[in-house]
Design brief:
The longest helix is centred in the first third of the chain and has 56 residues. The protein contains three helices and no strands. This is Cell division protein FtsL.
Amino acid sequence: MRIIILGALMLTLASAFILYSSNYDTRQLEARVEQQERAIEKTRGDIAVLKAERAHLARPERIEPLARALGLGPASEQQLAATPQAALDRATATGSVAATGKKKGN
């Protein structure tokens, strides 16, 4: 009878330890997930701010006076050079930005 009680006590203690351990691990994982979710939200906010800044800085009414002050103007026909077809084919094959302004696969 003592052996059964001792065995039940040991089994109870082992179960309690296992449950405590799994609860502790679960809490650590939850904290890690929350931390990563906060980092994701912060990054999304940063991206939104950067997009707004880019939109503000790229406004034509802002760029025009700056370009005039620097003596810049539209490119003349003599300043433009034709891009060889081989270079376009290589750029398209490697997935870099092509004439459409989009990456291959988008």
